[in-house]
Amino acid sequence: xxxxxxxxxxxxxxxxxxxxxxxxxxxxxxxxxxxxxxxxxxxxxxxxxxxxxxxxxxxxxxxxxxxxxxxxxxxxxxxxxxxxxxxxxxxxxxxxxxxxxxxxxxxxxxxxxxxxxxxxxxxxxxxxxxxxxxxxxxxxxxxxxxxxxxxxxxxxxxxxxxxxxxxxxxxxxxxxxxxxxxxxxxxxxxxxxxxxxxxxxxxxxxxxxxxxxxxxxxxxxxxxxxxxxxxxxxxxxxxxxxxxxxxxxxxxxxxxxxxxxxxxxxxxxxxxxxxxxxxxxxxxxxxxxxxxxxxxxxxxxxxxxxxxxxxxxxxxxxxxxxxxxxxxxxxxxxxxxxxxxxxxxxxxxxxxxxxxxxxxxxxxxxxxxxxxxxxxxxxxxxxxxxxxxxxxxxxxxxxxxxxxxxxxxxxxxxxxxxxxxxxxxxxxxxxxxxxxxxxxxxxxxxxxxxxxxxxxxxxxxxxxxxxxxxxxxxxxxxxxxxxxxxxxxxxxxxxxxxxx
Length: 500
Known about the structure:
Aspartate Aminotransferase, domain 1; about 45% helix; globular
């Protein structure tokens, strides 16, 4: 046997190529026609049951598998490519990014290391991010799955900086120093998770109160630092937020930078979606001080509209990043020539040795669209959020629950039982397929949360959200309107979704 039967390439490249073009056409049509579909459609039980099948032993024709995908997967995603998706801070993706992802899959490059051009593409993006955020040439950076991983890495780097590289061998138990960290009570839960996974523990994280704008209260932070120092603890890490998860508030980054310098603390910024506001001249002033961070975490797959996943960590001192993650091994021997050249490798700056070519879709996105165009898309989502806020303030039946700093709007329908009714409104809107907000709690009150991130969203989409909220709120609080509301929804969806 020559091994030909073991190869997984097509036996007929002509037939395969035709099917591949058909699959590309289908997904391009899916993206082009996104407005003609509901935002979200719950998957029917028969489709779910088909994914309980046994492990396949025999081969199946590619066209048949593609048909199954079209029938059982494609219609039932969360819908974040749709302009009416306003539930969570998720980008809408682009056709350019999709094609770049296809090219990256074809190369099948492992960016853990070795002397190869895909790593130079990642270094190019790192250089661009240094330029964008005002970081020095000595800054390190790395693509990761998302900001949750980037925040964890930042905590680990700050921990090593505080305790020395010996902590990597001896662990926290070898040190008598008890480290404590600080972030806003409005920060993303992944900061707390990072403390947990790093071994420092959630109990070592202080959640600092916020002011009326949702920003970290700096006087409260100062007081917390003083209390912990008096108790014999060692403050080491402060995480500011550029775009809080609930309302999109931006901490006073410049003031935090000054405070952390004064107190000799590691200054990290969770800029999951907000950091890329630096691309928009209208948003950039809100991010003053971001250039002073010791580390910055953000996602290209949010405001950058790059397909999932594409998170990034930028570290002011790349040497500290390497000290935290570098792990020499015989099988990772470096040379000055050959395929093992090019040291240091990306695996020296993070926990992953196996790494996909995430940089290519970011490189394509920035090259094809340019920063000005991406910045305009970012600014437009903020314009839409302010428009939505004005519509809410102009409706007596609606109440704005938080200030609008960027692109997130939190509001509710006024009624006698606001928590129950607004929770029902959110589910009803999602199930209608017209629009998909999410929910949160603002000062103990249930809030409808609209996060406008998709570059495809327009004024008509946020105006539809307001009308649909008013209609469903009235239907839920006035029994005589419920039957009429159900008929209206049927008619709207019939017009929205073309008949096969």
